[in-house]
Amino acid sequence: MTHRIHPATFVLVLAAILSSANAGQDKGANNIDLLFSNLDMHGFYEIRSGYRTRKDKYEKDMSIMEQRLQVELSSYLDWADFKVKGDLFGDMVEEQADFDLRETFIFTRPYDFMDLKVGRQILTWGTGDLIFINDLFPKDWQSFFIGRDTEYLKAPSDAVKVSLFSDFANLDIVYTPQFDPDRYITGERISYWNSGLGRLAGTDAIIHTDKPNRWFRDDEIALRLYKNINNYEYAAYAYRGYWKSPGGLNATRTQAIFPDLNVYGASVRGNAGKGIGNLEFGYYESDDDQSGHNGNINNSELRFLAGYTQDIGKDFTAGLQYYVEHMLDYDQHRDSMPAGLSRDRNRHLITVRLTRLLMNQNLRCSLFTYFSPSDKDVYMRPNVNYKASDNLALEAGANVFFGDYPSTFFGQFRNNTNLYAAVKYSF
Amino acid sequence: MKTILFFMFICVISSPLFADVNAVEPNEIAVSTTEQSLDVDSIINKANIMAYYQGDDGKAKVNMKITDKNGQVREREFIILRRDDADGGDQKYFVYFIRPADVRGMVFMVHKHAALEKDDDRWLYLPALDLVKRIAASDKRTSFVGSDFLYEDVSGRNLAEDTHELIQTTPEFYIIKNIPKDPDAVEFSYYNVAIDRKTFIPMKMEYYDRNGRLYRTIESQKVETIEANQGDQVVQYPTVVTSIASDLNSGSKTEMQFTDVQYNIGLRDDIFSERYLRRPPREAVK
Fold this sequence. Notes:
The complex is a heterodimer.
Chain A: H1 7-23, H2 28-37, E1 40-52, E2 62-77, E3 80-91, E4 96-111, E5 114-121, H3 141-146, E6 157-165, E7 170-176, E8 192-194, E9 199-201, E10 209-210, E11 220-229, E12 232-242, E13 248-249, E14 256-257, E15 260-272, E16 275-286, E17 301-313, E18 316-327, H4 330-336, E19 346-358, E20 363-372, E21 377-387, E22 392-403, E23 418-426
Parallel strand pairs in A: 10-14
Antiparallel strand pairs in A: 1-2, 1-23, 2-3, 3-4, 4-5, 5-6, 6-7, 7-11, 8-9, 11-12, 12-15, 13-14, 15-16, 16-17, 17-18, 18-19, 19-20, 20-21, 21-22, 22-23
Chain B: H1 2-9, H2 40-52, E1 57-67, E2 73-84, E3 91-99, E4 107-112, E5 121-126, E6 131-135, H3 151-155, E7 162-169, E8 173-180, E9 190-196, E10 202-208, E11 214-230, E12 233-247, E13 252-263, H4 274-278, H5 282-285
Helix pairs in contact in B: 1-2
């Protein structure tokens, strides 16, 4: 898998950071000493296991069975902060051990008006709760669906983030020199609807992709212009890159591809009544098929989100979101698809989040539900997390999929419904 | 220094009044006549400033030890930065979590509004997700980080939410009874605050339930004088460095200690913005 990094790379990156710290200053040796004396180490060790609740003939019964050690090293010098964070994990579903380098970056504030973060980093912006319109940074849907911690929904980017600040507005520029796709559903861990085969599929039909991977040519750029006015947060966004999960098929329909995508959008978030309200929209311009005639490539879309969160009791919070994806060249899409295989023009989605803290906030019960009235499918994420002590947490949860049709966004995953439990020791 | 305290101490300030500090017998009244001219509003305003607004800004490292009725202990450690827009007015808080390990690096930011009708603005930053969350702030009487201190104890209860009555003056304390104007909005029917007559620091707060039963206390256990610069002058800020909140119903108590207390360190307003929420300033993490 492309996202896994060889441990040697990790060591090299660390060495590069150390030497750059060294080279950037006259008193190199002192800097190295300082870097080590400022070093801070934290992390966790976790055991997580889960099973499918029903038989899936394309996947193992075990949905997750892993031990994971995350180590985070951070340090700083006068002019910069450094961080390296990686996960070493052994996984019995895929029967292998792996290293996932989550973050390795240098952060510096070279000027009063500028922040700079270079390296592997987790990036998030936008206003949605587990719904992303203008956040085109990579997601790990597989981790999300098999019951890893929500932290793993965000996959790292190898990027440069430049942030510029002024009284007029602030600007974030994220440049990713080589396209970082989502860690999308491939069939390896989660069975899915394979439209080519016209049935559910999994390990028998792993999705093969043709991924843009030329450095500095197959690149991505994401911009956010934002300003806080009386604590209403306004933002405008632009993105130039690719559909982050496969968004089409090649001409011979043998490989999934990542067609060109441009996104333009805006959002606002702030206090509304007794809670927090947010609005966000995005125009998804499917650049390889502007006319919408190519049935093999995603249609252009408008996406819109409205959300509201409020306390509904002591340590009890409810959040509600409405989201819609609207295909812009729907007639062309319908004409280009074989009868019966076209999508609905609009995909409506409603989400409800309920979070309740109990036992002095040591027990967190939460339920996040996606419900699509147009697709007639549901995805529920119940989770209970108990902090037995400051270091030890026990967790149990489920990923529950329902659907009337086997091909809809969540309905296709109905055989992947799973229960999981975890023990996590943080240090 | 104000800043610091406020946090921890919170209780103190907000609108507390309280009465009967330990060992203070209701009858042993020995009021000096010169002080009698102080009316209740002046007392609570001064106490509010002392508890939450000392200095123009402040910083402290806070350790919380939460002990439940079974003796199980949980600890919290964070650095808190505070900046006042105006004494007794709007404030900004920046809280950087150090412990427990699973919340290390998390940041909680508050823009506190003195206007009664305006809810505070709160943000939470989760570093593992690089996520800036906005948090609804309608209920301030919920526990702060699972401790026996409430949000309102940390950042102060708006004085205008209660009516205040000076019920007793002892040689050491003004004892003020505070009754909520909107009783349905809070869990107490009233609370008494004992305010030190010399320093105006709230030394003890006692909360009574609807049956008139004492169910919650906050005590200032240790006050230190912190020296700081104000312009060219050296000034002294008496600061509560240890306070204890006890929940008599659950048997749980939380000891909050402030170390590294500093005032007037020149915190800029823009520190309390998304830029620093995503990447805290050095002041906040060391």
